[in-house]
TrEMBL record:
Protein name: Ornithine carbamoyltransferase
GO CC list: cytoplasm
EC number: 2.1.3.3
Residue span(s) of domain Aspartate/ornithine carbamoyltransferase Asp/Orn-binding: 147-296
Family membership noted in the UniProt record: Belongs to the aspartate/ornithine carbamoyltransferase superfamily. OTCase family.
Lineage: Bacteria, Pseudomonadati, Lentisphaerota, Lentisphaeria, Lentisphaerales
Aspartate/ornithine carbamoyltransferase carbamoyl-P binding domain segment(s): 3-140
Residues annotated for L-ornithine binding in this entry: N160, D219, S223, M224
Superkingdom classification of source: Bacteria
Species of provenance: Lentisphaera araneosa HTCC2155
Amino acid sequence: MAKDLMNLLDLTKEELREVLDLAHKYREDRTLDNTSLSGKTIGLIFLKNSTRTRVSFEAGVNQLGGYPMFMDQNSLQLGRGESFADTAKVLSRYLDGIVIRGHEHENIKAFADACTIPVINALTDTFHPCQLLADMQLIEATSGKLEGIKVAFMGDCASNMALSWIYAAHLTGMELTLGGPEGYLPPQEFLDSIGNPSNIRVTTDAKAAAAGVDYIYTDVWVSMGFEEEAKDRLASFAPYQVNMDLLSVAKTDVKVMHCLPAYRDKEVSAEVIDGPHSIIWDQAENRLHAQKAVMKLKF
């Protein structure tokens, strides 16, 4: 297993299987392996605010018997200009593992490369592998498999979530269709980098993306850092709202997922997020179990 988890391709298919199997066990029994991080201190560096990621990682480290040490930009010399590499070299002398959430993927990768201890990417502007592990765990739990499952990702198809979904489909054989407007589609060179697989499709037609799928997935339209683009984004993504009209073209038992935070009646209607098709709260819970599995295997 690679030292770090920067994106899903850092896992082989066999390692992904190991993570998901362990995550399912942790969901069944939160006391399992409750001493596996005993005596270890795990640094949680959050350069970007978070609710689910911070709480699920802190709780997960605690449930595995370790000590979670939270640090934000203001509590580190990173905020005064110390380099990522220098910070990484020092923290490696004190800690047993690091979870880091930041902005530019290249900076977080440089930080991980300079560390001598394992580093887990808890979100960058390019990838969010831990969210996808939790999502795959839930799809497997509700459908019994991943390969062949049809998923539509709606909205910003060039986002960190969409790119992570592309890697997830590439690894598992899920049938992924990305539905979004021109200007927000995945870069062709990114698709080319994994061989442009036939199980991943891109369309600007929202209903064509959602037709006959088992799962519809969406994400916030205006993520942190994109506030200045809010007006244009809200207008561009409006036709891709996940609402009952869009669900009407999917399978009758379609399930709706959202990585949260959600803005009701923007990317998803309140009727859908609170309705019988929503599995969003189970999805949020799985962050805890999937991340515990990664930490058990990495740290």
